[in-house]
Amino acid sequence: MEKKALDEESILKIKQQVVEKLRNIGETILDQINKGENPYLEIPIRHLSNVKFNKEKRILELGSALSKRYYLDVGAVRKFVQTLAVAAISKQLIEEKTHAHLRDIFYMLKKTLPNTNIDLVYEQTESDKAIEDLELITSFSREQLNIGADKRGVVAGEVVIEDNNDIIDWSKMGSGGWSIPSNTEELVFKKVDADFVLVMEKNDLWERLNEDKVWKKLHCIIMGTQGQATRGTRRLLQRLNSEYNLPVYVLTDFDPWGIYIYSVIKFGSINLAHESERLALPQAKFVGLRYDDISRYNLKKHIIKFKDVDFSRLDQISNYDWFKNNKEWQEELNKMKNLAGKVELNALAANGIKFISERYIPEKIKEGEFLD
Question: For burial by CB atoms within 10 Å, which of 59, 190, 250, 285 has the most?
Fold first, then answer.
C-alpha cells in the first residue's frame, strides 16, 4: 500500500514520539527503583533462533522472544548502564536538533565511572551494541535516534529534495551525482518524476549509466550502492517505493555476492531483522545478469572460475527459505553451480562501452525479464 510522503510536520511528530519513548524508559527505571525492585530493561532477543521469514510479507522478522537485563546482575550491569547512557545522549541530540556519528557516541561514552577505575565503554563495539539494543527497546531506528554511520551510495534522477533546509536537485549534480547520507529519514521530497528505480552494486557501472544519462532516457532514478547497501540507502529506496509507488529493479553481477546484495535489499538481513519493516523491499525485482545472458550476449570467454569461498556462499544462499522454495531461483542457482563460475556486468563492455545502457538495460526493462 502506498504511504503518504513524509513532510516536515510528520518528521517533527516522530521526533516528539522518540523523546517521549526515551523519557518513559527513564521513568520506568526510576519507578522500579522507588518500589525497591531490581531495575531491568526488557529487550527482544536478536539471535538467529529468534529470526523468522514471514512468507506472507516476504521479509525477515524478529520473533517475540524477550530477555530481561537487570541492573543488579554482575554479568549485565555494564550493558544496562551503557544502554541507558545512549538513551540519554539520544534524547539530548534530538532536543538540541543535532546528530552524532557512531564514533562520536563511542567517545561520548568513553569516560571513567566516578570513584572507580572502570570505563563505561572500552571499545566501539560496546557502544554500537548499546545503540542496537536501544533500537530494539524503543522500536525506533538508529537514524530516528539522531545517530548516523558512514555514508555510501550515490543517486541521480529527476528528483528534488529538501535536506537540512537545502534544496537539492538530483538531476543537476554533475558526474559525481548526489552522495546519499547515512540518515535519509528526514529528507523531504519536493518532486519525484520517475517511473522506477534502478539499483546497482558497482560505482563504476553507476558512473557509466550516469554519463549516458540513462536516468533521463529511461525516465528513472539510478542508484549505486558501492557494495552492500547501507541502511541510509535501503531506507531511501524503501521510501521511494512506499511513498511514490516506484518499482525497484536491482542490477548485479552473475555471482553469489551480487545475489546476496539483492537478497538483503529485498528480504532484509538477519542482523537487522528488527528493521525489516523500514528497510526491506519485498517488491524489488532482479534484473542482473543471468545464466542465459552468457550465451545471449557472447560472454562465455569472460567467465571467472569459482573459488572455494564462492561455492560456499552459493550454498548458503541456495538454502535461504526465500530462494529454496522458489523454482526459478533454484534453477538459476543450480546453473551457476554447474557452471562453477561467475560473470561481471562489466563484461558487457566487450560488446561496446554503451552496450549496457543502450541495449541490455532497456531490453530487460521492456521485456520484463525479472526474477522475483
Answer: 250
